[in-house]
């Protein structure tokens, strides 16, 4: 996963740099938390970023 905005920081819930391959296997019609997103703006303005 990565974000397109420089102000949007992604990190795994475990805090590690890399996750186990098994954590990415999500069955159809299920959800699973994988990452934490933190937004740190340098100035007050409208911002747009995408997580892919």
Q: Return residue spans where pLDDT drops below 50 for at least 5 consecutive residues.
A: none
Major sheet characteristics: 2 strands, antiparallel
Shape: elongated
Following the backbone from N to C, one meets helices and strands in this order, namely: EE
| Mean pLDDT score | 85
Number of helices: 0
Instruction: Give the helix/strand class.
Output: mainly beta
Q: Please state roughly what percent of the residues sit in beta strands, choosing from under 5%, 5-15%, 15-25%, 25-35%, 35-45% or over 45%.
A: 15-25%
Q: Could you give the count of β-strands? A: 2
Residues in helix, %: under 10%
Query: What does the radius of gyration come to?
Result: 13 Å
Distance between the termini: 5 Å
Largest beta sheet: what is the strand line-up? 1-2
GO cellular component, one term: membrane
Organism: Portunus trituberculatus
InterPro entries: TMEM131-like, TMEM131_Ig_2
Keywords: Membrane, Transmembrane
Any overview of this molecule?
The protein has 52 residues and is mainly β. It has a domain at 8-39. It contains no helices and two strands. Pfam families: Ig_TMEM131_2. Keywords: Membrane, Transmembrane.
Kindly summarize this structure in a few lines:
With 52 residues, the chain is an all-beta fold. Helix content is 0%, strand content 19%. The chain is elongated and about 40 Å long.
